[in-house]
Amino acid sequence: MRGRPTLLSARATVAAGDTNLLERLEHLVALGFDEVGFSPVRVSPTSELENSEFSTEQFTQRMIECAQGVRERLLRGQNCALSNFLTALHQIHFGTHRPYPCGGGASYVSASASGDYYTCHRLINDGAHALGSVHSGIDTGRQHRHLDQKHVDRQTPCSACWARYLCGGGCYHEVERRGRDGCNAIRRWLNFCLESYAELSTRRPELFTTAPGRNHP
Fold first, then answer.
1. Which ranges of 2-78 would DSSP assign to H, the alpha helix?
2. From start to end of 23-152, where are the E strands?
3. Which of 100, 135, 179, 200 has its CA 20 to 30 A from that of 87?
4. Model pTM score
5. What is the rounded distance in angstroms from the CA atom of residue 210 to the CA atom of residue 217?
6. Nearest C-alpha neighbor of 41 from the set 22, 59, 62
7. d(CA 77, CA 170)
8. Is a pLDDT exceeding 90 seen at residue 37?
9. Tens of pLDDT, residues 120-164
10. How many Å apart are CA 174 and CA 178, to the nearest integer?
11. String of b and e for 95-129 (b: at least 16 CB within 10 Å)?
12. Distance of alpha carbon 3 from alpha carbon 11, whole angstroms
């Protein structure tokens, strides 16, 4: 494909009830994507699309089943196309320390149509997450308060969770709108990834010689 990037990634948003993730992964790879990441619908104006606590557990089970298939392919020397899995494996390998779930309000801000800055695009027009404007600049006082309050070690119950530096405390928007009903599912997924890393780092150590998203084996 002319002009094709070296790494072509897809992000697939999964609605409640859509559980055959391995089939979705294979379909997107067949279309030409090198990597595919899955993310569940957690907040939606249409409630039937949202993954509730129960369906979030189902989503996690399907993610684990999908990653199990990917892990077997990796052990056979094939490629990994599931970016959620690959990213988690590399975070574990390199000892990633995530004090925040994302760069919102730290390494980037989002601007509304009127030019006001907010922590992220999902929190546009939420006054609690306002951070200045294109006219007045970043409100550094509000930015520092945001970073101080949202540090994972200052979140409850995050500060006592073994997975906090791999999770970062959870998406600000989702936590405020839905609470922390997905924590058990996150820990279950990360536990699976830790077990997988123990096996893959022994049997295929070359997988961890490059950062994720860099033409990995």
1. 21-30, 53-75
2. 35-40, 110-111, 116-118, 130-133, 137-138
3. 179
4. 0.83
5. 9
6. 59
7. 33
8. yes
9. 999 999 999 999 999 999 999 999 999 999 999 999 999 999 999
10. 5
11. eeeeebbbebbeeebbeeeeebbbbbebbbeeeeb
12. 20
The two three-digit tokens of residue 99, written as one number: 């004090």
What pLDDT does 2 receive? 65
Amino acid at 146: H
Which residues have C-beta within 8 Å of that of residue 68, sequence separation ≥ 6?
none
Q: How far apart are CA 95 and CA 177, in angstroms?
A: 30
* Whole-Å CA distances, 210 to 12, 87, 95, 205: 24, 11, 14, 11
Question: What is d(CA 142, CA 109) in angstroms, rounded to the nearest whole number?
Answer: 12
Residues written for the chain: 217
Percent of the chain with pLDDT over 90: 68
CA–CA dist 42, 111 (Å, integer): 23
Q: Is 179 exposed, middle or buried (0-12, 13-18, 19+ CB in 10 A)?
A: exposed
Strands 130-133 and 116-118: antiparallel
In sequence order, which residues have a C-beta less than 8 Å from that of residue 66 and are 6 or more positions away?
A: 21, 22, 25, 38, 82
